[in-house]
Amino acid sequence: MAAETQKKGIPLYGRIFIALGIGIAFGYVLNMMGGTHNPIINGYILPFLQFLGGFFIKLIKMVVVPLVFFCIVDAALSLGDINKLKSVGVTTIIWFLATGMISAMIGLFWVNLIQPGKGLQLGTVSGGVKAKELPGMYQTILDFIPSNPFESLTSGSMMQIIVFSLFIGFAIIALGKKAEALGKIFNMLSMVMFKIVDYVIAIIPVGVFGLMSTTMTKYGTAIFGPVLKFILTDYLACLTTTFGVYTLLLAFVARVNVVTFWKKVFPSWLIAFSTCTSSAALPVSMDIASNKMGAPKDISSFILPLGCTAQMNGTCAYFAVVILFAAQLYGVDLSLPQQILLCVQATFLSVGCAATPQIGLVISLTLMTQMGLPLDGYSLVAGIYRIVDQIHTATNSVGDLVATVCISNMQHDLDHKKFEDLSLVGQSPVHDDEAV
User: How far apart are CA 265 and CA 284, in angstroms?
Assistant: First the structure.
């Protein structure tokens, strides 16, 4: 194990931070040497740095459409037990979508209030923002349905791709054993896409260096104010969801002691926060839900694994924050209908996010493209994404446990006596097949 650890070397987020630091230092030196006004820098060095950043961005754009398509189908297939837990399944999906939308709206509130992108003008957007104004609820719903799914896949119309993917997934479920082989193919294709994403993510340090060096060369130290304000805004959005929305849901839907909940859930929160992946916290969360909080094992074993993919409240808040942050950097005012559309897109896109580090960084590029925003501001987020991804993941993971407790109580299956038993706090996990 020690040899394996040494072989791995510096973790990815460490390499990203190093690349970020080198990019800042290198770009600062170039900026002090004249930046874009220096003919050598502007004619030779800057184009190469832009190539490095552009290469990384192109790779991400390459994988986004097939990633969302195959993973949404695979996420829909994970509802294969919906017949066994019909009422729980419907309630769970509605819960995930509703809490995701609320989280995105909270993100919008904070980013509009703090306006982290104000004060630094990265440029202008030629032709305006491409996102359409919402003509009305009925037309908006109709626009989600693709007239030609293949055209939607080609053009990257993400909402239409998501709807088509959900139809395929549910149809495969309805066909049962006849379509089991096809379901396995989609599952394998989903795994293949995540493997490709692993390859793309591995070159993030190179892309961050190129993007950050380019930005520093052009704008100098003026970028740091907006970056710090972005981190603050993102954390405030996630903490509001965690200690505001979750507290209200636990108190009024689950009708449990919120302090007791946090005493029991903290180990899972800490694992998610430190690893940036809900999957790492899943075994602990399943033990906490069934053995320490009194949720039935059939409900917790359905909601928690599904939640790792389909409930991304922290990521929803981030999507809203990062898009408006990018818009503010370019002096673009998104109208209220456009912001509402952003919340809807963020909620549905989050359904396809796997519980892996950096995936939100990949998907957020899709939203930025959908809104017609330039991608230069992406560099300001890519370098510090690990910092904000920690609070996203922790918010996501705790949200899964909140959903489990609340839905268990709605089904009248929550063991309140076990939930209130503080003697269970700190006990070792129960290692049985059902808990893990």
Answer: 9
